[in-house]
Design a protein that fits this description.
With 298 residues, the chain is of the alpha+beta class. Helix content is 16%, strand content 39%. It contains 4 helices and 14 strands. The chain is globular and about 50 Å long. The C terminus is likely disordered.
């Protein structure tokens, strides 16, 4: 009862301090809604129905978080400039194994532990690992695409701790157009009880062909994190000061790695480091002639 009450208090805070939104006019805030008792992957069928999409079976080595990285192309971003392993990871994610390490800022560790104990583990959602030992056996990675008219309109990425089977992240990945500028961005939607967390990430390419995804400070509709309360009587959203940076790159030994930094405002919270290993005889490069969705709106 206590934890449900705290869930409700969070929703009341969003409604009191955020803004009421019309989802028809802000499609970048649309997405799945989680149950009050468990999130996990229970939302997938309902989201497929909302999108009019079919659920493609998980486990296909060719399943990727994005149908094509070219969906992110703009005047100053070209998917063709990415290193081949970086592009293969996003277009054929199921063909890669994830090993990870985590480091928390000392001030943030108690806060992270409380969130994990009270919310994340109960809900099977956003259960950030507290120690690298928790990640000693790595993470499993299952990608389940949603397909409509032959094109991918989203993909569930479900990650679990291999040691325990506990869900760490359950998110819907896709591409949206940012309001105003109209530039494409990566959108990751994490269903939560009676709402969701929407993270918009701006892509850039480094000189070495690496990919940087950022959700920094900015105004309404800019890349960043948005808490959404979605009820039959209306929808409310609030931009929150959670800023992330992902750097996906090939190191000097040819190993694909990712550094993930998370901050609360200017304060460092945690840093996750991933080593990504492609399965032998893996999926290979994605077919550039396949169906594309240049502006996926969920």
């Amino acid at each position: 009862m206590l934890t449900r009450g705290m869930d409700g208090a969070t929703r009341l805070w969003v409604r009191a301090t955020g803004r009421r939104v019309d989802l028809a006019a802000t499609p970048w805030l649309q997405g799945p809604v989680g149950d009050v008792d468990r999130v996990g992957d229970a939302w997938l069928a309902g989201e497929a129905d909302r999108l009019g999409a079919a659920v493609r079976p998980a486990g296909d080595a060719g399943a990727g978080l994005l149908g094509s990285m070219a969906d992110l192309d703009r005047a100053d971003f070209a998917a063709d400039a990415l290193a081949a392993p970086v592009r293969r990871f996003y277009e054929c994610t199921s063909g890669w194994r994830l090993d990870a390490w985590v480091g928390w800022a000392p001030w943030a560790w108690p806060f992270g532990w409380a969130v994990a104990a009270l919310f994340a583990r109960r809900l099977d959602q956003l259960a950030l690992p507290m120690r690298s030992l928790d990640l000693a056996r790595g993470m499993s990675s299952a990608v389940t695409p949603l397909v409509r008219d032959g094109a991918q309109v989203g993909a569930l990425w479900l990650r679990r701790l291999r040691a325990t089977g506990r869900v760490v992240f359950s998110g819907l990945y896709g591409v949206v157009r940012l309001p105003g500028a109209g530039e494409p961005a990566v959108r990751v939607t994490f269903p939560l009880p009676r709402g969701r967390l929407v993270v918009l990430l701006r892509p850039t390419v480094t000189a070495g062909g690496g990919l940087v995804l950022t959700s920094g400070a900015g105004g309404w509709g800019d890349p960043g994190a948005y808490l959404v309360v979605d009820r039959p009587g209306g929808c409310w959203a609030r931009r929150i000061p959670v800023h992330e940076r992902f750097h996906v790159f090939v190191d000097d030994e040819g190993v694909l790695r990712t550094d993930h930094d998370l901050r609360l405002g200017a304060l460092p919270v945690l840093r996750l480091h991933y080593r990504l290993t492609e399965s032998p005889g893996g999926s290979g490069p994605a077919d550039p002639g396949g169906p594309r969705v240049p502006d996926v709106v969920g």
